[in-house]
């Protein structure tokens, strides 16, 4: 998929059909979709089941519950979604390894699913503790080697710092960046400093013309990365 | 309620009626019930709706999604459960204040609901980052003044440290301690060092005689605290 956009589907005032139509209309112009706890609360496992009929190998189908519990609870939480084919899961790096992320990563790997760890968040409160612990969080990432990371477009310096650490330690990990649009960062902000994907929600989903917005953002991304940016 | 037990209802291999019968049979001998993401995944909002018919003012009805996201997502997640009457919500102190816990606490306060913050976790991975940041976490707690805290029975020293901080800073906050039973700590471990409640799951819910186990643990707690411990 020749796009660097992940659409965060956190709208909850639409019928389930809206999501099916939305995905159908946008799947050729975005890289993937992200579903959080608001989706789970509103549409339940049945909602995920309906959406799962659209799952393919060309997109990321990201479950973003910001998992941050002990291993048995996290595994019990994602278990049925893994079986439905959702292939990517976001958890917090800060909860640590033994009894937490080690077992989660092991479980996901065995199911051909990917783990993405939150390295830093997009809101200001992230500075209170998470960003102060960035070195500790990066040590967790070095040990666990997750498939991907989350780092905020609202603080591009943080992405640069993380990219540098990954490069110096020869760690391969995709970087996903939230914070574009309503949260304040302009499209392209994260891609420009080396993120692989920008996670964009309300700017697209609340728009009266989501396809136009997506195409405009794809154009911005292409201008940053160059035409052959696959 | 003259008990220090919160039952963690993380079993997912039972019909919903099991929970209703379980709560009915145990409500006079426990202080409250805790529901996590496994319950939400398995029984959905309809499950919470059914259980909400049993909600009273005498128990804690705790939603433990280990919330750790930006404020709009956390509020959108708990919104409908608050309306149903679930009165207590667990979030991670780690995610910080502005754009995170400030707005969540404000939302919950306006709905007469309580916020409980995770100060430390029961698994070993908690030592990797969370426990290294305990002083930062306690500063968040000092600023936010949540109604309650979570601290692990598996590391009673941590509870002692937290109690000392609360006392020195004249902060009132109930302490809830997971980690009893399957996770390794003996019943009474946390109460003995000053926790207010022990959160107990599988030791009770997987038992062939939950009521007997609960009564045995209540007896242990009474022996520690004294008879008039309300």
UniProtKB/TrEMBL annotation, chains A, B:
Origin superkingdom: Archaea
Domain (Orotidine 5'-phosphate decarboxylase) ranges: 4-217
Active site: 64, 66, 69
Record field: transmembrane: none
GO CC, alphabetical: cytosol
Top class in the EC scheme: lyase
Pathway membership, UniProt: Pyrimidine metabolism; UMP biosynthesis via de novo pathway; UMP from orotate: step 2/2
InterPro entries in the record: Aldolase_TIM, OMPdecase, OMPdeCOase_dom, RibuloseP-bd_barrel
Designated name of the protein: Orotidine 5'-phosphate decarboxylase
Organism: Staphylothermus marinus (strain ATCC 43588 / DSM 3639 / JCM 9404 / F1)
